[in-house]
Structures are given as C-alpha cells and as structure tokens.
Amino acid sequence: MLPALSIAPATATDIPALVALVNSAYRGDTSRQGWTTEADLLEGTRTDAADLADLMAGPGATFLLARTANGELRGSVYLKNQHPDLYLGMLTVDPTHQAHGIGKYLLAAAERQARHLGCTSILMSVISVRHELLAWYARHGFRQTGETVAFPTDVRFGVPRQELVLLLLRKQLENLHADSSTN
C-alpha cells in the first residue's frame, strides 16, 4: 500500500540523504533487498555528492523527492528539461519500500512536471540487460526508441562486470489540450 507521500524539489541540504538513498537502492548488499539492484552488474558506488550537486545545478534540472509525512525520504527522481523531452534519470525507491507504488507515484510526478514545462515526451536510458526494469517501464508506457548510448566509462560511478549498453526509452505524453470538438 502506498504511504502518504509529498513531492518536493531537492535542495543542496538534501544531497547527503540523496546520495545514501541512491547508492542503497542501486549498489551493495542493501540494494538486494529491492528488485532494482545493479549490484550484480556493477561494482562501486552509483553516485556521490559532487555528481548530484553538478546534476542539480544544471540548467532546467531538478531532483524531486518523495517523503513521508514525518519527513522520511522514500524515493527520488532526476529530471532535466530537454524540450521537447523531459529527461528522467535515477528513479530511486528505498529498497525496503519497493513494490508499494512509490515508483509509479514518482513517474506521475515526472509526467506532471513534463506537462507543466510543455514537454511532449519523457526520455530515459536503461541498461539493456535490466529486463525486469525494461518490462516495468514498458507497462508504464515507455517504448524503446531503437537508439543506444555507450555506458559511461567514468569508474567513479561503477565498474561494469560485463559489457553494458544503455537503451533509450521514450513515453509520449497525451495532449491534455487536444481539440475535443472534433467528431
């Protein structure tokens, strides 16, 4: 069951908690408590404070945070306006609270943000061998574009245990202002 959550943009003071959340969800033993771990694919950390600060400071970029009523951080998502796309990255849910609808809640918040910015689609990248994650995004309207991106070679954010490639996925957003007078 989805807990009562609020969504708000992250600030610089949120970076330490955000680093801990992202790394716990993607890498290491803690990540194995959830279903979105990359621990078998990559060694090392997923991100660090400097990386998140750089991402947060980018033009048109933000992290949205999902918190419980008592302020506990349960999830986050990175968004960057690349009109007509809103780029979505690092969708993260605390591994001990995955499979409770928090990811869907964050996706809905990202869609609202995209529409607010006038974007017509959401673009993201997913590691090609993450079949369960690709299927989850497909169930939420994302389609593979046929384009790929080389996996980053900066070892600060993980050392691949195998050759990896990123698939680009896009979700077209329905036009909420479509002409309803057409018969």
TrEMBL record:
GO CC, one annotated term: ribosome
Location of the N-acetyltransferase domain: 5-174
GO terms (molecular function) for this protein are: acyltransferase activity, transferring groups other than amino-acyl groups
Which Gene3D superfamilies has this protein been placed in?
Answer: 3.40.630.30
Q: Does the keyword Secreted apply?
A: no
The family database entries (PROSITE patterns) matched by this protein are listed as:
GNAT
Assigned keywords, A-Z = Acyltransferase, Ribonucleoprotein, Ribosomal protein, Transferase
Q: Which Pfam families match?
A: Acetyltransf_1
- Report if keyword Ribosomal protein is assigned: yes
SUPFAM superfamilies in the record: Acyl-CoA N-acyltransferases (Nat)
State the protein's name. Answer: Ribosomal protein S18 acetylase RimI
At the highest ranks, the source species' classification is:
Bacteria, Pseudomonadati, Bacteroidota, Cytophagia, Cytophagales
